[in-house]
Specification:
This is Secreted protein. One of its GO terms (biological process) is carbohydrate metabolic process. InterPro entries: 6-hairpin_glycosidase_sf, TAT_signal, TAT_signal_bac_arc. With 627 residues, the chain is α+β, with helices and mostly antiparallel strands. It has a domain of 171 residues. 35% of the residues lie in helices and 17% in strands. It has a 7-stranded mixed beta sheet, with no helix packed on it. A 4-stranded antiparallel beta sheet has the order 5-12-8-9, with no helix packed on it. The longest helix is centred in the middle third of the chain and has 20 residues. The two termini are 15 Å apart. 46% of the residues are buried.
């Protein structure tokens, strides 16, 4: 079992920072050190995630400027960077992994004049601070940061704190002959009695970088400190094989990872939500507004609290509190303007509201909490979503349902994805919780619409229904997405067992089960070798849960074996290394490492962890693993 002492408390007690030197590690590259270190050295103290210093100022100054350089910005990654881990081969198996034309679009972006980079802010920026980008300008150009207005490039760009996000910030440069020389945070600090005092919170336990002090009149460097991380992290081992003890330990680690994904920028509408990605190479979290994925996280946190032996950095009651806070945020994101075309739907990302994605978080999140809390707000909000689904099906004559409403463009998308099956778990869960036949009829109506639109003669589903042609694209064999299809059909079966949805789910499940590797993993595409597309960490995690759910329904031991093998693979690949922000996650290195970018980089996707947690909960509920 894991030690009951939390990782956070351990780090608070043992972490130290050294200034001006490093022992056993190189905090900054030689080039970076030459650029940002100079003057006399001073000591930075670390207490948990708090960095602080006091420094005498010999010059007659009323203020000084503090500059903070994170190690994460030694290389500021570009959207279409090519990973050194990508397969060094070009054949049909490496092409068009997701959809035709995707690779060509990426290559066109690489050849364009523009590039998108992501400078990292892994410190809790304060109102008296700004982000500074020093540019190497080769020719006149423009920039745009975090979807703000386009502005002309200058040698030094200062961005006020309100427009700076925690972790990755999107920075467009045009033309890309211009480049970033430095990115840092800056603060003007008053000199009091010939001394300055400064304190700041880091966003990660193991922050490293440099801090320099400057004369604000001319930029002269007065002093600097190299902040290093010297702590030896506690070894974590969850054992080998499959045991109840190991599964509980893995669930504890996964729950801690989910807790640490919290988005804490108070200037954002998504404040309190979760980051979708953690990139180990770039040392940054990304994409904080992906609210449909918060449902599985809430389910895991809420239900893990009732598992004997689960030990995380917070109490079990706090696990449940965090889950409820997360789901309250999604309730707050429901569109309640009756004049809006998206009335009743949740804002599921920064720019859109998706009916089916909203219903997915209802099934995985809201209704998981409703089972215990019986809070009617979940049913009331769910009814508005069901009404929205019926309204859209009415408008499109039960032929298709738009994937999402785009706020800025004031229109609906003109496609429907096969992942629209994600809407079925929410509708089915509302019926099973209330017995209201309205929800059952809506479940059947949507399930039948999707089957008519997507299912082919093999029982597989095409990828996109396009309203302009009223036709569906061919199958793309995306293993994770077929998990969403099976999830929807399984839950629709629970609401309407007479409709034959379970048999359809089993056709898909058996087709994918035939491709499961001996170690329990699944390929990103079940028609291609993982050698060329990668192992599907997300797919393996969700199918681990689905196979165990099928085993409970039909009793076929092959589903139990497949589910437990998938869980064992996930446990074997749960990260327990030195990057504290990644601990407890499952690192994917595949074509869709970062969903639709960061191909072949090492990335933890938050919903991979929550699907894994759900699979563990399914296993621990079985008689075979009950205490």
């Amino acid at each position: 079992m894991l030690n009951s002492e939390s990782r956070r408390n351990f780090l608070k007690k043992t972490a130290i920072a050294t200034a001006g030197f490093s022992v056993g590690i190189t905090t900054l590259s030689t080039a970076c050190r030459q650029k940002v270190l100079g003057g006399k050295s001073f000591e930075v103290l670390r207490n948990g995630r708090t960095l602080s210093f006091q420094l005498p100022i010999e010059k007659d100054l009323s203020h000084i400027e503090v500059r903070l350089f994170s190690k994460a910005n030694e290389y500021i990654f570009e959207y279409d960077d090519v990973s050194p881990h990508a397969p060094d081969v070009e054949n049909e198996q490496t092409k068009d992994v997701w959809m035709p034309g995707f690779d060509e679009a990426a290559e066109a972006r690489r050849k364009s004049s523009q590039e998108q980079r992501f400078p990292v802010v892994d410190l809790a920026i304060k109102p008296d601070m700004s982000a500074v980008i020093e540019m190497d300008i080769q020719e006149p150009g423009t920039y745009r940061i975090n979807d703000q207005d386009i502005k002309p490039l200058t040698d030094q760009i200062r961005i006020p704190y309100q427009k700076v996000d925690h972790w990755a910030n999107s920075f467009y440069i045009d033309p890309k002959t211009n480049s970033i020389k430095h990115f840092y945070l800056a603060a003007q600090i008053a000199v009091v009695n010939s001394k300055v005092s400064f304190q700041i919170e880091t966003l990660r336990d193991d922050w490293v970088g440099a801090i320099s002090i400057h004369d604000p009149r001319n930029g002269e460097m007065l002093a600097s400190s190299e902040v290093t991380w010297e702590t030896e992290l506690p070894d974590i081992s969850t054992g080998k094989g499959v045991t109840r003890e190991r599964m509980v330990a893995a669930l504890s680690l996964a729950s801690d990872f989910l807790l640490n994904c919290q988005y804490k920028n108070p200037n954002s509408k998504a404040f309190g939500g979760e980051y979708l990605l953690y990139d180990l190479t770039a040392r940054t979290r990304m994409r904080p507004f992906w609210s449909w994925a918060w449902g599985p996280s809430a389910k895991v946190l809420f239900e893990a609290a009732d598992i004997e032996g689960v030990s995380t950095s917070v109490s079990n009651s706090q696990l449940k509190q965090r889950a409820e806070e997360l789901m309250q945020l999604t309730l707050d994101l429901q569109v309640l303007d009756k004049d809006s075309p998206a009335y009743g739907i949740i804002q599921t990302s920064a720019h859109e509201a998706s009916t089916v994605d909203s219903l997915f978080l209802v099934g995985w999140g809201w209704m998981s909490l409703y089972k215990e809390t019986k809070n009617p707000k979940y049913i009331e909000a769910g009814k508005k979503l069901a009404d929205a689904a019926n309204r859209l099906m009415d408008e499109h004559d039960d032929v298709w349902i738009p994937q999402a409403y785009l706020f800025e463009e004031d229109r609906w998308k003109d496609i429907m994805s096969f992942e629209s099956s994600m809407g079925l778990p929410g509708l089915a869960a509302l019926y099973l919780a209330t017995g209201d036949d309205y929800f059952k009829k809506t479940t059947i109506r949507m399930a039948d619409l999707l089957i008519r639109a997507f299912e082919n003669e093999e029982g597989l589903w095409g990828v996109f229904f396009r309203s302009k042609t009223m036709k569906t694209d061919e199958v793309n064999y995306w293993t994770k997405a077929f998990g969403y299809i099976a999830d929807g059909l399984i839950e629709a079966h629970r609401a309407a067992p007479e409709k034959g949805y379970l048999a359809k789910a089993m056709v898909i499940a058996d087709r994918i089960l035939a491709t499961q590797a001996a170690d329990g993993s699944l390929s990103v595409r079940f028609d291609r070798s993982p050698q060329y597309v990668g192992i599907g960490d997300k797919a393996t995690a969700i199918w681990g849960a689905l196979y165990l759910r099928l085993y409970k329904m039909v009793g076929d031991k092959k589903y139990y074996t497949a589910g437990m093998k998938a869980i064992e693979w996930c446990m074997d690949h749960q990260y327990v290394g030195d990057d504290t922000a990644a601990r407890g996650g499952i690192v994917g290195r595949s074509w869709p490492s970062g969903i639709n970018f960061r191909h072949w980089y090492d990335v933890v996707v938050t919903y991979t962890v929550s699907f894994f947690g759900s699979a563990l909960l399914e296993a621990l509920s079985l008689d075979e693993w009950k205490e």
